[in-house]
Amino acid sequence: MQSFSDFLDTISSEFTPVVKGFDRQDYAAIDLSANNRDLLKLEVASSAAFSVYITEFLKNRGKQAAYGGYNELRTLYNRSELFNNTASNRNIHIGLDIWVPEGTEILAPLPSRIHSFQDNDHFGDYGPTIILEHEVTGRKFFTLYGHLSRQSLENLEIGQELQKGSSFATLGDRQENGDYAPHLHFQIMESLQGKAGDYPGVVQREELDFYLKNCPDPNLLLKI
């Protein structure tokens, strides 16, 4: 059977937008890993300071949106007990982050239906989150959208169908998105392992092999 990663790569041969108003040429790749020395100068516990950092990063490159973070070891999660505790110690990011302004509309990258949603409202968590279910050539999988506005969860219905390219949510600000600079956490999962409205987006090194297989690089689909 074709691997899930190879399958995703065949779904689309061109750029597939998941945020409205940005073309492929508007994006710049950003490194937020532990190797980025610029982050040492930044107060990473401050979402406001991080917003300034992202704005300056894009301004200096003449771009409008930043993306990256898949399979990235990050120290910025040290600020949150959700990740930085002896039972968890999670610091490897397995989604793709897209850094664009609050209020940006989120688009369904494929024909979809609403699988589940909830407000994961712990400090440092996703905040409002929506999971979509997809079926392409008989193969089912899921996509997760984190750090949304609370308004995005209003009037949703489980099973509600969405067309490819339709707008179904907006990005939240730091008061509602888990206290982050505005961005979309986009993640693809072959299996949800029985979860609904939530799925790990930051994992331990000991679990990484499983999660990299279950959650391949989202850019295989988006092709930014």
From TrEMBL:
* Source organism, top-level taxon: Bacteria
The M23ase beta-sheet core domain extends over 92-190
Gene3D superfamilies xrefs? Glucose Permease (Domain IIA)
Query: Which UniProt keywords are given for this protein, alphabetically ordered?
Result: Aminotransferase, Transferase
Mind telling me which Pfam families this protein's record contains? Peptidase_M23
Q: Name one GO molecular function term.
A: transaminase activity
Quote the SUPFAM superfamilies the UniProt record gives: Duplicated hybrid motif (SSF51261)
**Full protein name:** M23/M37 peptidase/aminotransferase, class III
The organism named in the record is: Christiangramia flava JLT2011
